[in-house]
Queue: 2 jobs
Job 1
Amino acid sequence: MKRFNNILVYAGTEHRESAVTRAAQLALDNKASLTLMDVVKPMPSVLGLMTDVAKPDEIEALVAADRRRRLMEIASEISDIGRPIDVCVAVGDAATEITRRVIDEDHDLVVKNADAFSPTGRLFGSVGTSLLRICPCPVLLLKPQLHGEFDQVVAAIDVESTDQKHCNLNREILEQAYSIARRDRATLHIVAAWRLWMEDSMLQHVGPEKIESMRRDHHARVRQAVDQLLQAPFAEANDIHLHLRQGSAATVIRDVTDEVEADLMVMGTVCRTGISGVLIGNTAETVISDISCSLLALKPDDFRSPVAPSGSVLTQEDEPLPLI
């Protein structure tokens, strides 16, 4: 089972305690190194014109130095985990700079507190949503009110896609969710949706009896695919519940998450287009806008971030499609 080796926690939020605590525990459990990071927003150009105290870049450097001192204090508070701890402060857009650090230093997990609920009811604000789109490694967004361990973990898998990329991602989702559930002694719920392709349109031509037969055959194939996924070590577990339901993926995932009162969802969030570039999946976009629990977001192995490493730029042929 894959382990994390180099964890980054974004400590720039107002309520960062749960993210830092969880990241420190993960570093201890995985024998991983840990980096505490903060990002300073660039000084607005209008303010730069209004001050004669110092140049904008000098003021930004002073703020960054202050943030670094604060991170050093936090690092000293968790130094008893006995793992290497580094601190990093960047200036720029938070999601972009976090992603660039991930690429430069080969981090394999980002931990961040989700934003408090916005007036629109969304738990994941602009920084979190951007990380779900552009960060190449898994991203763990923690509900601010979360304290302690998870109790109900939901793993959302796509059992109707049979290509190797989706199969690998499904396996990774299950392994990460299973690992977290075992660590926290939580109940693991595996949710998968299925439906017959163009059922309403075909009904007009083949009739209800044929549709029912096709539906049974398709369900049997889906169930076989699920059974193949749930091999060892999952087959021996007695605290796993399978929710295999007919319907749209977004609706099924949200329904199960609400029913079991999940406090963590593990799912894939990004699909790759046929040409250079990545888009957030429609199912993930819909689900993420509604859920109120923490989220561990995974991406396919061939995911390519639109963020360039430090000291380089994307060529025109490498430029991704717009993130919508």
Job 2
Amino acid sequence: MDLGELAFAGAAEQARLLAAGTVTAPALLDLYLDRIARLDPQLRSYRTVLTQTARQEAAAAQHRIDTGERLPLLGVPVAIKDDVDVDGEVTACGSGAVSTAAVRDAEVVSRLRAAGAVIIGKTNVPELMIFPFTESLTFGATRNPWNTALTPGGSSGGSGAAVAAGLAPLALGSDGGGSIRIPSGWCGLFGLKPQRGRVPLAPHDDAWCGLSVNGPIARSVEDAALFLDVTTSTPGPAGGFVDAARKDPGRLRIALSTKVPPPLIAKVGAEQRAAVDAAGALLRDLGHDVVVRDPDYPPAAVYGNFLPRFFRGIYDDVRRLPHQDRLEKRTRNMARIGSLLSDRRMATIRAAESALAGRIQSIFDDVDVVITPGNATGPSRVGAYQRRGGISSLLLVSQRVPFFEMWNLTGQPAAAVPWALDRHGVPLSIQLVGRPHDEATLLALSAQIEEARPWAQRRPPVS
């Protein structure tokens, strides 16, 4: 196989090639290390590359392969978002406020290692994962491989840029308000926000007051399903997620919605609306029942529930940091807002989630999947918010990404599915939202779309 094709083959296919002896684990790792050395100075997708330990892990993986051992990711490099602990490495979270290395792997990293993964490096994030663009004063700006003047999104922007540019076959992301789905959409990748509690967060349980989850940013639906199979902490579908992704989804009831959840105000681009319409047409042709219907979004859900949890989550993260004086000014200001929310007030807000989620999820009494636009517009230019404060930046950038937060509040699975390139040559996506705990249907439907409209062959200019 051509080395360029191998770099973009994806995690599941690479695992098969490794098991068959077509490629060795050290050679596969060296392919990515070479690509990172050549291309990442333009992108800054990695905060740190773990060259020495990754080579040791790749050599050990090859020995296990040679002795006949078979594991789902044995020898496959995986990138880790830099809000997740890797033993012996600083979990910088995009900030200079952390200086102490983690003393053990996070649970999700332990599970990836148990499946045979080689941890290749830690990917860049905005400070404390606050914004949907990946820029920090400490580590600089991560750029989109489709157009390096633009952001890849955030906060898992380093993971998105790395997988899109062929600098990793698979990456771990986290999502507290779209942070997997936003960069996946703008980088042309499949990104899945799993059901809350599906993938372990330990030792950082209940991150952002229950809003955040860990999940995959992947080149294919199969790769994302494989990630879930090796990391899930709750029972999945019979036969596993990879098997679910291979199944015919059957005839589904699907609702199309381009309504911006109130009270957010955003103008959804014509191309993004057209993508939802085209998805509806495709799915009708594939035999599904498709209707136009909006979820019942409570007007108070974003400002009354999501945002208090978001701000309090920032405050909780900040007060655990050893060097708070090194934080960016806008991070400190946003943490101050969170400090005004008492434990008692947060308990009341958390208790209101069930009723809000029930109202939003009532649409699933009649449909199996809801489809919305992914990002409402294309990505912003790198540095667009550099001179703005935290609240100003948040208000402006939220107009680009209004379709995600609701599903962090409800906790149910949602996926960014690549659709096309916009008129500027940047990827755009649709979002698929499933019933609670029903990643299986999302994977099966996404795989059906992937077969009808393949996306994995697309290569960004920086690749």
